[in-house]
Each structure stands twice: as C-alpha cells, then as structure tokens.
Amino acid sequence: MDISQMPLNALRAFEASARLGSFTRAGLALRVTQTAISHQVKALEERLGVSLFHRLPRGLALTDEGQALLPVVSDAFQRMSATLSRFEEGNFREILTIGVVGTYAVGWLLPRLAGFRDRHPQVDLRIKTHNNRADMLLDGLDLSIRFGDGAWHGMEAVHLMDAPFSPVCAPPVAARLRHPSDLAREELLRSYRPDEWAIWFRAAGVPAPPLRGWMFDSSIALVEAAAQGVGVALVPVGLFAADIARGRIARPFGTTATLGAYWLTWLKSRSETGSMRAFRDWLAAENGTQGRAADA
Asked: Nearest CA to 221 among 100, 99, 102, 98?
C-alpha cells in the first residue's frame, strides 16, 4: 500500500476518535462536525479494507486492527508535532541534550549559559545532571561532561579544566584548624572515591587518619553538609569559589590534590552535529583553551 496516498485528515480523525473515544469529542477537538469525523474514519476503513472501531451505543471501542494502527499513527503525529515546533520565525531549532555532573553544572556551567544562548539562539539546550555516572544511549545524551581521567570505553574525551581538591568546612570549624594533622580530630566527609583523602594527606605530608562516617554521592551535598558544620569535605575548590567568597564555607589549608579533571565526552560512534560542535567550541572559548584530547 502506497503510504503517500493515505489521507492525512482521515488519519487525524482516527487518532482523535481513538484517543477521545467518540466521534463527537474528536470533532470538537479538531473543530469539525461529528459527521465529518465519521465520514473520514469510514473512508479510511474502506481504503484499508478493515474496521477500526466497534460502534457502540455509548462510544467507540477499537478493533484489533485499530489497536495495531493507533500507536503507529499517534507516534507519527507526535514526532511531526515535535519537529514542527522546532521551527521558529523561519529558523530551525536544533535540540542538544547534555549530561553534566552536578558540581560542574552549578559551579561553572549555569552561570555562563546565557552567553551560549545569546550566541547560538537556534540551539534548544536540554540539560540532565548526574553524579558522574551517565549512560549516553539510555539517557539520550549527545554530550556529557564528567569528572575523571578522560579514559572511558568507546568515548571521545576533550579536556575542559583541571579540578584541584582541597578541604572546606564551616568557618567555626576552620578557626580551630592550624595544621593538616588537626583534621584527625574532625569528621571527614567522604565521597564514592575511596582514596581521595589518602591522596590529599600524602600531598600535605602527614599520615591519613582512619576514615569512617558519612558518605555522599556528590560534591554539592558534601559542601552543604560541611557548611552546616557536619564535618570537613574534600572538594574541587575552584567550583565553590562563590561559597568561599561569601563566607559560607572556609578553606583552612592551601594544599591541593589532583584526583582528575573535567572532560567533555561523546560516543565515538556518534556523528558530530552542528549544535554539538557549537557547544564544544563555546566551552573551549570560555575556558580559554582549544581543549586537548584524551590519550588514546
């Protein structure tokens, strides 16, 4: 059957009637008469050679053939509607879906996003935050910003920025810390990276105390707990500069440890689109670098 010969109005009448359960309600929704809807559905049934509805005294019920056709027609209309909605004033809006680790999103990306919007108004940006674990295919991501060493299987990775870690805490807690060894008397808040405190204490030149206590899955939650006096958090301090400047948290020691960096990643199998290239170039310009690719 030649799909190009299928009557679009009849398909719309069928979809609305099936969704609303009535020719009358379908006519109101499509702003035509009940009789017009009934005739259009009848014409579609004749063209297909099947009945799509059981006509009941108090409404409609789909036949097996109607139940098979409805999801296909509904999906087609939804996809057309979504695509047509991306045309605005003669311009086609590109959808770009990005996964971003929450710390980077709050501490660096969000304060600058207005600049990307102004430069690329044709890109409809969709942002999904994550805690450094994202499935590009399952989550429908074009790009993902994550923290690590740049080595992810099947992924391209471009370096965005280094992220030195240092302890932060509430100002009253910082006031009693004079030397890194004083941290042994404090509650050291932990993340999913088990060796981070050991690496920082090694950089500070003092033995690491036994670690136990609270654990969090994001630096944002760690900083919130530290600000409330729960303990001392080890976080990428550059992304919490605003909190430090406001005095919400304090940085008691200048020693830093390198645990990884932030990277822009995408699937090697993914063809780069114009919007992906625009976002990558904008990030590079904002960071003052063209970015370096991860070592193969």
From this structure: 102
